[in-house]
Amino acid sequence: MRDEIRTRPWADERRRLHDELGPQGWCALWSATGAQLWDTTRELAERIRTGIVAELVERPEDESDVRLRLLDAVLGQHDAAWLAAFDGRGERLSGLAQVARNAGWWWPYENVVVISERPVELHRDEDGRLDRGDGPALAFPDDFALYAWRGMPVSAAFLDELASLTPAHIRAEENAELRRVMLEFYGYDRYLSESDARPVHRDETGILWRIALEGDEDVVMVEVVNSTPEPDGTHRTYWLRVPPTTRTAKEGVAWTFGLGQEVYEPVRQT
After folding, report:
1. Are 203 and 114 contained in the same domain?
2. Which of 77, 135, 160, 220 is the most core-located residue (most Cβ within 10 A)?
């Protein structure tokens, strides 16, 4: 039933609009509508599938069957990306659009429909990735949830531990990706100050710091002071993450402007 309800009408309407608008017109329409949501929505749908498989599959031989059932779903609100391109351009997809406004994933059969609810929580970062440090990044009414930090899947137990992090705990983490999450959550500047880190270079632009991490590339940062004072007269300190190959503070600051240190000579800073 999915092909009859979703796949064929979508293909027919796409062909109709493509013929009506021409290749350039269709590309312009898609760029202004569905393309802006497509990648992040598709990635989110795949994350949900992966999470459901992890929760339901008890034996490896059952995974393919569960995935096939999930691929049979019409994605409801997560079809909004491609439905946006057809909004106001015909009635054939209006039923799908109406369901997308009110429901989550659903499975149409000949005599019955299975409909799931929409999430009750959704937290993303500025890049559209699942992201939350104090709870589920995506949660449904039945308690199914996904946990993530800046797009990286993590467990609920891992997030619970972030509140009690220490530099020693961070250094002891063997998984490089999880250790990076810990550092981002803890704060590089705080980690530096509480780890008795030593600067490796300083010049008129700032101070270069390096954190050696076992099994991972070094974290290198430049400590700079904003030349523009705050309203109270103080000058705010910032920490700039720079490539691990950076050897001087000036080289690091120049890199943030896309320049080499040999040509970075600011005349005036604001």
Report:
1. no
2. 220
